[in-house]
Amino acid sequence: MLNYVKTSRLSTSGDICHTKEVERSPLKKKFKESCSISKSELDGAIAAAVKMAMAEQRSDLDKIVTTAVKTAIDDMLVPQLASLSSELKHTVVAVTTITSRTENLEKTVERIQSKCDLTQAAARSDRDQLTALQLKFDNLAAKMTDIEDRNRRSNVRLVGLKESEEGDNCIAFLRANLSKWIPSLAGREIKIERAHRIYSGKNTTHPRTVVFKLLDYTDRQAILKGARAASPVKHGGSSLLFFPDYSHETTRKRKAFADVRKKLDNLGIQSFLLFPATLKITYGGRQILLRSPDEAEKFLLSIQPPTGTSAEDQANVLYTLQEVSNETSFRPML
């Protein structure tokens, strides 16, 4: 384009020189006057020539830029796009694999959830059955305890008799000495079915307990009542104690009142255990039945608050006792 402009300028300079020559010649001067071009027309022609050259140059430049851009794309972007396409394919494969595994995991979780539901249902059923069986077992245990207590209802336990004191015939020994130990039995024929000492695997210096079974339940009651009236009962310098014979479970329940009974005795309050394990207390001119050691402890707390107990604590105790009384924990005998 610059060459074209230079050529145009050279042509213009030649025209000027030629114009000067024409001006020197009359003929040429006359021709000049008939063929003269104004400056504005010349400038327009130059501008048009420049535009044409620039258009040609722009077309060539566009072709060059297009070719360069295409070459750059082919050299740089195409390999990268191919690499991205390959990575994308791998990513798609990985996503597909993960999706498949996720679906398998979902199915596995659903199966596990189903099994868990079945297991929970079975556990609830087993728990209900276990509760029912436990209830039946407790009922059967209570019946067995009752049967055992009834079977022992005519038995008496004799504690404190020295070993071998009874000789070879324990029944004859008891018949000969019961009326001596318990004066209220004098003249009463006591019928004893069998008598023996309880086996104990423990090495102890205490004499083993003697258990004897009476044929008549009234004789058993007479022995226990007479022993309480004649207390303390002595034989050869040893103190003898007479107790009812109960099952292991009933004995355990009755022993649970031992500490409370000692506290009541220290306070001068008379207490007595009723069958199977109910504490009978005479206090304030009324008789009270306490079904458990906890009830007995609350009763003690109500009649003798601990030293240093604040008025607020005593009020709380009284409120508790009021609640317990409303729930018939204290059951006065009618």
TrEMBL record:
Instruction: Give the highest taxon in the source lineage.
Output: Eukaryota
InterPro entries xref list: Transposase_22
The protein's name is: L1 transposable element RRM domain-containing protein
